Structures are given as structure tokens and as C-alpha cells.
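Appendix B. Extra example for self-study. Work through it before the problem class; the solution is given directly after the inputs so you can check yourself.
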Amino acid sequence: MQSKFSNSAARITRLGRRGCDLMEALGRAGVFLFQSAIGVPSREGWRLWLHQMHFVGVLSLAIVLVSGLFIGMVLALQGYTILVDFGAEQALGQMVALSLLRELAPVVAALLFAGRAGSALTAEIGLMKATEQLTSMEMIGVDPLRRVVAPRLWAGFVSLPILTVGFSVVGIWGGYLVGVEWLGVFEGSYWSNMQANVAFISDIGNGMIKSAVFALVVTWIAVFQGYDLVPTSEGISRATTRTVVYSSLAVLGLDFVLTAMMFGGL
Amino acid sequence: MTDAPFIEIEDLYFFRGDHEIFRGVNMTIPRGKVTAIMGPSGTGKTTLLKLIGGQLTPESGRILIDGQDVHRLSRKALFTLRKRMGMLFQSGALFSDLDVFENVAFPLRVHTDLPDTMVRDLVLLKLQAVGLRGARHLTPAELSGGMARRVALARAVALDPELILYDEPFVGQDPISMGVLVQLIKRLNQALQLTSVVVSHDIKETLSIADYLYLIADGQVIAHGTPQTLDINQDPRVSQFIHGEPDGPVPFHYPAEAFYRDILGETPVTQKD
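Solution. C-alpha cells for the complete assembly:
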């Protein structure tokens, strides 16, 4: 009886401690975001940001665009087989465009971005921490939050929405290739149905808002995990994994919340 | 120049988790001198440098640098104070995305508006002093450990700081570069009137350059004085360390069960075994 009681007490204690640790980590991450993102960048800051735009954004282009192309092609193929049963294959353009703009482009681009750029950011900052480069920067009188973290944070925040636009454009073109060129949907109806039924603010605008939110969350998780990790090889590997897992879960969970707010009438 | 000490450490307590690293450490580091902090491995010498640099915060006590309490400064004021310090890291801690030249130029570029030609001249002067002017185009990955340390020294003195903290500067150096480093630290100190704090356990080299020594063990200062006074100190702990004797009050082994009992399997098997 006594041991049963002490076992549950220990379990509750552990749970409480985990809760406290979680809240503490969230607080640290919040302060970290505030200290890194606030402030006017210097000329050197702009140069560093451009440099990171190349690493984070341009180098992610290939994987994002190729994935967009295939997803657009698959959407058209699957959509056609269903729509043709109802004689509604003329609505294929609208279906492909809405699926991509509202859901697939922001979500899939964010997941790919977390795997390609997020993990690289965590590993890079983590290795800088493990080799005392961040500490030596601090001792030189340069704040690594401003010099190392801020350019990466802003580069991620700006580049993911742009990548998402690229994903949608290439996806719609992929849908055109399969639907119009291959399966014989009338080209005029593919484009005109899309034009008539896609609203700029509620579809494209909401998709971009989603993408901006995902960009902030994924990049924030990636740079914070890198900055906050235990500076050992095992610590870097764990933090890199955590970046991909937490980012993916956050993107999918937030997608539900945002969709409910934007399209679910909440 | 004022005679007030450059660094004052008052009643410093510091813990890592439950482990007590420092309990009541007091030190006074004079201006313009080489002060060495020595002690066996694991006594927290590097931790002390990080406390002085404001990277760690003590449990209690305070550290004053030129009259300013390091741990009460705002983040901005702390970074301003750090411009007056240089630190030589044990690993060198060079920026891996910059070559040797840019590593040394880094503090000049971020803290001054000097034209490129002047930055170039200053960097070449610093690299010449550490004998690596010819290695300016190499990346940190192409340097040996000893060379990386010398580049890091050139970077640490790039802004002509008032205080330099050396973390184990002699570890892993070949005899030639060891001799050069010893001379360099001494010369830098004399020529620029720097205040130097050297953390080391290389007794011979450290004694040859230090003006004053602190010996720490068990989280406390166990002795301090000039190299001559410590050399004749009768305290068995001091004598054992200074003369490198294997037997004495400071044990070589980490606390453990008796060796024969361990070997015969009489000690309880822990989960990790």
C-alpha cells in the first residue's frame, strides 16, 4: 500500500518536474526569440542575411520545386479519376489550385524546409557552440544572437513563403501537364475555372499567412535547438532530430488550428 | 596608471548542479602583471575564467573588473566591457567559416571603422608576431592544434585589449612554439602593459613568466604568492603540486573502493556495470 502510494507520488513529481522543465524551456525560447529578432540590422547585418538567404532559401529551391511538381502531377491524376466519374473533369484546375494554395503548398514546403534547412541550421549552430565559436564571439564583444542567430532566423522567415509560392506555381504547372497535356482536359476550362474560383485574399492570402506562421515556427525551433543544445556530438545529433520532429508536429498541429480559423468558420 | 587591482574576486561561490566548484574564493589580480592561476585538473580553472568573462554567473560573491561588477552589468554594458578583454581558448575556437586572416581581422572589422588597408597591416603585424603570416590564407581546418592556438592569440590581441585571459596556453605545443608562446606572453605583457591571467598546470613555463601565483584546489585558494615564495612553501599540498610529486595529500585516483575488492568482484555491481 505504502509503496503503491509512493510510486504514484513519484510519478506525479516526475510529471510536475517535466511540466516545469517544459515551461522553463518555452520561456527561454521566448526570450531567445525576442533578443534575436528585435533590433535594426546594420549594413553588415544585411550582408549576413543575404548570405543566409542563399544557404537557407536558394539551396532549398531544388527539393521544394521538384516536390511541388510531383505533388501537382499526382493531384491532377487522382483528381481526374474521381471527377471524370461525375463528368466534372473541367473543374480539375480549380481542385488542383485550391488544394495546393490552401493546404499542400504551405504544409509540404514547411515540412521539406524543416528537413532540409532546419536540420542544417541546428547542426551548424550546434557545432559552433560545441567548438566554442559562440563563446569566443561573446568574448570578442559580439553578441552571437545578433550576429549568428538573427540573420538565420530572418532568412528562414522570409525564404519559406517565397519557396511556398514556387511550390504552388510548379504544382499547378505539374497538374496542367498531367490533366491537360496527358489526360486531355480542355485547357481553357483548366485555367478559367481556376481563375474564377480562386480568391486572392481568402485562398492565396490565407495560404501565405499559414506559410509565414510555419516559417517563423520552424526557423525558431531550428535555431533555438542549435543554440540550446548540450555541446557534444550526441547532443548535436539529438537536437537535429528534435528540430525535425518538433517542427513537423508544430506545422501539422498549427495547420489544423489555422485551417479551422480561416475556413472552418471559427 | 592607477595602482588599483584590475580584477577583484570576492567570496565567490559557484555550483554545477549539486557539485560545489568554488567555495569562498578571494583573489586580487594586479594591473599590468602576469598572474597565474594553477591547480590540478578539474579544479575549475577554466570555469573561473568564464566567471571573470561573465559567461557564467556565480551563486554568490562578486567579480569586479576595473571597478565594474561583471554580473550586475546589462547585456550591452557587458559586451562593451568585453571589448577591453581578449581570451585565448584552449581549443583556439577559431571561426570555421573564415580563413586565418579574416579570423584575426574579425574584431577589427566589427569594432572599428578602419580602412581595409589599415586592417590588413594590423592583421599582418599580429600574424607576424605569432609567426603565421605565411599561413594567412589557410582555413582553421588546415591548421594543427598548436598553430590554431597561435592564430587565436593573434586574434585575442587584435584590438590591443587591457586584459588577456589565457586558458591553458601551453597544452599541445611543441617545444619550439612553447618557447615562443612563453616569450610572447611575457613580451606582450611588458610592451603593452597588459594585465594577463594565465590558467595552466604547466609548472615550469608558468613559473617562468608569472609575477604572482594563485594555487586552487578543493574549491579554494590554498596558497598564493610570488613564484619564489611558493617554491619554498611547506604546505604538503602546495609542495606536491609545485614539485610534481605523485604521492601526497592530493590523490591521483578518483575516489573508489579498494582496488583488490573491485578486482575480486566484492563490490556491489552498479547498474552501469
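Self-check: Chain A touches chain B at residues 35, 44, 127-128, 131-133, 135-143, 147 (CB under 8 Å). If your reasoning did not lead you there, revisit section 3.
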